[in-house]
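Re: folding output
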Amino acid sequence: MNLGGEPERDDFGLPPVDIEIPDDARELARDVQAYYREQRALRRHLRHRRWGSPMARDGMVLPLLAACLVLALIAGTLLTVFTAGPGGDPARVPGSAGRTAGASVPPSAGASTGSRASAAAPRSPVPAVTAVAGRTSRLPNATIGLAGGQLRLGTVKASVLALVPAACGCAEAVRELIFQAHQADVPLFLVHASGRLPAAVEQVASRSGWSSLRVADDVRDVLGKTYNQTGLTAILVDSRGMVSLAHQLRPGLQLASKFEMLRAGTPAPSPPQ
């Protein structure tokens, strides 16, 4: 600076600078704070650019969102395919298909419906059917109650008597027994000794609509005592009056072929020695 207050020429060719040095450094506090604010703002801007630049570079945000949407759609489609059965119905728990098929086919349905239901149901071993030897090889000479009168057991031929225990929980097995007897065109008697059939079995019988299905009341339990009833028991009487037994019948029973032999008078299997 010269004495006249005009800036002198710098030997290095730099532009002239008018510098004013304050007497008190505290006068620069406001400028220092403004400088610090600018530095903090600059650091924040650089930090945001550092974290956001990988996503914003070359327009990556929209492709990434589109990829996530496609993956979500694929996952939803695969979940629908693997949790649905062949016909589009929800997949059933193993073992429930047989019960559903048995419950959906009434005894009055045609043979084709019955064959489809049998194919859908799980295959079960044929219940053991054994002939009865001795004096019990024929029905006892007794009568049991029947709607509108009495049934003489000695006159029963080519028929099936199903002994239904009280509170047996066997409605599904009774439903299949009715259906198979209806297929074979063999009369079926539901016999109970407890005053009336269990409610579930009575409902199955009432819905069958089959004229050859009758309900009998063996109040003295003649048949149960004679043939040692065990669970749901079927007494098969052929055209000659000979008796064979099948004890502890359960859902999945296969007795249609045995019922068809009753009308033909085919001898029952020989009793065990």
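--- second protein (sequence, then structure) ---
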Amino acid sequence: MKVSLHYFDDEPNFGDLISPVIVDALLDDSVERVSEAEQKLSAVGSVITSLADGTQVWGSGVMTKEMPSDKLEFHAVRGPKTRKFLLECGYSEDQVPEIYGDPALLFPEVYTPKVLPWTRDMWVVIPHHSCFVLSHRRNFWGNLTPQDFEDWEMFGYRVIFPNEPWQDVVDAIANAKGVISESLHGLILADAYGVPNVWWKENGDEGLAGHTGNFKFEDYFESVGQINRKFVTHFEEVTEDNWQDLMSVETETSLVDIEVLREAFPFGSESNV
């Protein structure tokens, strides 16, 4: 059998590029992933509203509230807000099972990060990939000098851009003292590897450009039982005096069962992980 994976690859972004890594690790030996195939799959990413008819969805979410295809097959979705939206779009409760979880939560099972002792005392800062797309943000980051980054590192901030190789981003996250991230998958991978983290929400309730508010973040937080998430509007708000408080997370019962999420993968065998 052959299957093609839908994920955002118009520009390099580690949060999207980890999708084929996870899928390849879970695929049954009898299944080959190719660029185009009759069988279609989506996993990591806020891609549901851009999927073609017949795509099988495993853990994907929603970023903008546009009408999705009415011919998708759901095995799991990122969170309860995504499921509620799909029900509002006409899917039945049976068509969208209450199986939640972003597949990136499985990443520690498929990738062992390098040990980077020098980052143990650093807060890893991850801008959103739109910093390379939107002109005013691109100008800010583009106008920085090596000295700016050296100064930040002197105060404990290690900036890792989302267009760097995914291995480098994940290694930095897994070895950090804490993560300050505009990227949703910076937060998810920090959770997966047990690293304290805080949401960098520069635009407040407006959300990131091209997004429906903060829907995708709140969808994930609700799925893992994180309530009243703290956030900063600039990463330099995190200091030695407050970082532990900012990165503390109030939790209630998580809706994500990792075993159930893994078993819901439609093309795989647990023996491959």
